[in-house]
Design a protein that fits this description.
162 residues, alpha/beta, YbaK protein, eight-stranded mixed sheet, 8 strands, 24% strand, globular
Length: 162
Amino acid sequence: MSADGIQGNQTSTAKVQQALRDRGVAATVVEMPASTRTAKEAAQAVGCEVGQIAKSLVFRGASGKPYLVIASGANRVNEAVMSRNIGEPIERATPDFVRETTGYAIGGVPPLGHQQPMAVWLDRDLMAYDRIWAAAGTPFAVFEIIPADLERAAGAIVVDVK
């Protein structure tokens, strides 16, 4: 079976569900029949605004450290702004770097429960919503969460990302 097969998906989503439980978050991972790989697809699948999708984006600092930015699906991360927030130049991480540091492939990277600990920033725009949706380990799995709960569970710093 391939890395993207059924068995792998169950393992990835189970890891995310366990990470949520470990952090005291009462959110449930849901497998969707349609893709949730992009913010637009995820919003269509769950029936919410694109802005309510919390997309987990991994960046690589000049030092080689991984950084996670949880951005609203409606926003594009301004790398210059985030470099100032982080304190070093950053660039979008390669798919291999993302998998190596998080344990997940692009399109399913959750906002918590990563293979390596990393500093996390949360888009201030997500805090305006009562509920948001985040990836849960595969391009077909998501979970719904209160923004303040995600901030706490991910150990995130709330910032403007655009």
